[in-house]
Amino acid sequence: MSKNFQLLMRAEQEVSSGSGKKRHQVLWTPPAEVHAVPSCPLDGVDERSRDQVAKLVRQLFLLPGAVRAVAFAAVEPGNGCSWMAVQCARILASQVGGAVCIIDANLHSPSLHRYFGIGNYRGFSDVMGHPGRLRDCVFPVSGVSNLWLMTAGSSCDGRDAFGGERLQSVIEELRSHFDYLIIDSAALNPYGDALMLGQAADGIALVVAEQNTRKESARHAVEELKKANVRILGAVLNKRTFPIPQKLYEKL
Question: What CATH number should be reported for the domain holding residue 129?
Answer without folding.
Answer: 3.40.50.300
